[in-house]
Amino acid sequence: MTVVDSRPSSVQPNPAPAAEPEGQTLPQFVLTITCQDQVGIVHAVTEFLLAHGANIKQHQQFDDPVHDVVHLRTAFTGPHELRLETLETNFVATADRFGMRYRIHDQTPPRLLVMVSKGGHCLNDLIFRWRAGGLGGEIALVVSNHEDLRPMAEAAGLPYLHIPVSPATKREAEQRLLDLVEEHEIDLVVLARYMQILSDELCTALKGRAINIHHSFLPGFKGARPYHQAYARGVKLVGATAHYVTADLDEGPIIEQEVIRVDHTHDPRALSTVGQDAEALALSRAVRWHCEHRVLLEGSSTVVFR
């Protein structure tokens, strides 16, 4: 969608949106906004983009009538000389006028740190999508409290760091993780079946920057052997939930859920296989949507623009 200037000719027009030269790619940006619903928001945004020679490629909007809040995601291209710093500086006045919470992102792929334990199905799926160019981010390294998945990571050319965790070393291990996040300029930590509970302090430090996956039997089937418990109860649906990490265990804002129907023919092993499929799907979607700046946090919930 191209924004057109329809003002009278006596008014000096803003720069026309840049045309994309053949064989060249124009810089791409995504603007996300959350603010109280009020008159003039969309007009102000489009006017701002037009003034910077931007061409809107996608605009999505959700007006929340319960909380009287509007959420926007606008993807656009700009002329080659347009820089992220310029947009961020110049948008402050518009944001202040409407009381907006906003972010502007350029096309730099977010950098990911993936944490694993012994189960490799989610890591394997993330690596496949990353190498195929469909994950939306760049996996920078893999961290684990076990050595089991080192061959999988290193076969993909990824650094693999083993950080053992015990009650005595938990604080030290978590500090090492935070050091790695800073050292490698990590934008998102992905818990791909990492079987350790993070401390409240670490959850707070990674707020909005860490995604976890768990099977949706919780909290009905806690503890060990959840699929055996599910089989004993004759479950008919197997699912998984991807959510942001918070200090409330497995209760963070939900990004995506996947559900697969099963029946009495599924024994515990078959249920586990189906559950792994659901986990991999839900996690990869959540990671991609986060990397594409499609997820807006709103309290204990999320708005996800597909």
From TrEMBL:
Record CDD domains: ACT_F4HF-DF, FMT_core_Formyl-FH4-Hydrolase_C
InterPro entries per the UniProt record, alphabetical: ACT-like_dom_sf, Formyl-FH4-Hydrolase_C, Formyl_transf_N, Formyl_transf_N_sf, PurU, PurU_ACT
Record keyword Repressor present: no
Upper taxonomic lineage: Bacteria, Bacillati, Actinomycetota, Actinomycetes, Micrococcales
Reactions mediated catalytically: (6R)-10-formyltetrahydrofolate + H2O = (6S)-5,6,7,8-tetrahydrofolate + formate + H(+)
Region (Disordered): 1-23
Family: Belongs to the PurU family.
E.C. numbers: 3.5.1.10
Enzyme class: hydrolase
Pathway: Purine metabolism; IMP biosynthesis via de novo pathway; formate from 10-formyl-5,6,7,8-tetrahydrofolate: step 1/1
Coiled-coil residues: none
Protein name as annotated: Formyltetrahydrofolate deformylase
Organism of this sequence: Kocuria sediminis
